[in-house]
Specification:
Layout: H1 2-44, E1 48-52, E2 59-62, H2 65-78, H3 81-84, E3 86-90, E4 101-110, E5 123-132
Antiparallel strand pairs: 1-2, 3-4, 4-5
Length: 137
């Protein structure tokens, strides 16, 4: 009987460890996604006025890929994201593919509790967010 009790306790501890690790990865991904959302909105607000491209004579919002990347880095620095996330990187895909949408892709490493010695470099997570610039009256 004692063998079964020890086996069940070990199984319960293993299951608890797996749930804690999965929860840590999930929560860090949500935090990283929140940082990417804020950075994409800030980058979308960094538009410049473009040429009048339609018959009504209203200007359009134009985003530059380099400017989106710079605003993203500035946003992350101002909000302390590089201190909150381990190995935070702004992916090369960050920019503006169509000149009107800011795409921000961030990646970071997560170190789950207890099993950290099994994965010393951590688990890489990635979050992508988009925000669109639009001028309205």
């Amino acid at each position: 009987m004692m063998v079964f009790i020890i086996g069940y306790v070990l199984l319960a501890l293993l299951l608890t460890t797996v749930v804690m690790a999965a929860s840590a990865v999930y929560l860090e991904h949500k935090k990283l996604l929140s940082a990417a959302d804020g950075a994409s909105v800030a980058a979308a607000d960094s538009y410049t006025l473009g040429e009048v491209d339609n018959s009504s004579g209203t200007p359009s919002a134009v985003l530059d890929g380099g400017r989106v990347r710079n605003v993203t880095l500035d946003y992350l620095n101002r909000n302390g994201a590089f201190a909150r996330f381990h190995s935070l990187e702004v992916a090369p895909a960050t920019g503006s593919p169509d000149g009107a949408t800011a795409v921000v892709t961030l990646s970071a490493a997560v170190h789950p509790p207890i099993v950290n010695f099994l994965i010393p470099e951590g688990i890489r997570i990635k979050a992508t967010s988009t925000a669109r610039s639009r001028l309205v009256r």
